[in-house]
Amino acid sequence: MTHVITRLCIRDGACMEVCPVECIVPGFPEDEWPLYYIDPDTCIDCGACVPECPVDAIFPEEDVPEEYQEDIELNARFFTEGPGYSAMEQASA
Ligand code: SF4
Ligand code: SF4
């Protein structure tokens, strides 16, 4: 199981600050990867990120609303096909 960031994300970074396993990464480049993403292989399902989000964009995988179901796969794909953790260096380069 994992937590999932949905397209409601406004990229303020609040969730990233509290994740104990640092598995939340800002998407980059922004036009291609407009959200923050959670690495499903590393997330320990602690739930700490959920109350930090000002727009309630984060859900446990099993509670992702129907209209955001595609975002489950999107979070995973950011790490498998997208830049994943290397986005952090690219964004600050
Ligand atoms: S549920 Fe916990 S481990 Fe998973 S992304 Fe949120 S803060 Fe990180
Ligand atoms: S706290 Fe919410 S809005 Fe902010 S980056 Fe995380 S998911 Fe996006």
Description:
It is a single chain. By secondary structure, this protein is an alpha+beta fold. It has one domain: 2-Layer Sandwich (Alpha-Beta Plaits). The protein is 25% helix and 13% strand. It is built from three helices and four strands; from the N terminus they run βαβββαα. The strands form two sheets. It has a two-stranded antiparallel sheet. It is globular. The N and C termini lie far apart (32 Å). The chain binds iron/sulfur cluster (2 copies). One iron/sulfur cluster binds next to loops.
Structure, briefly:
This protein is of the alpha+beta class and 93 residues long. The protein has helices at residues 14-18, 70-80, 86-92; strands at 3-5, 24-26, 36-38, 58-60.
Topology:
Elements: E1 3-5, H1 14-18, E2 24-26, E3 36-38, E4 58-60, H2 70-80, H3 86-92
Antiparallel strand pairs: 1-4, 2-3
The protein binds iron/sulfur cluster (2 copies).
The site of one iron/sulfur cluster has 14 residues, from loops.
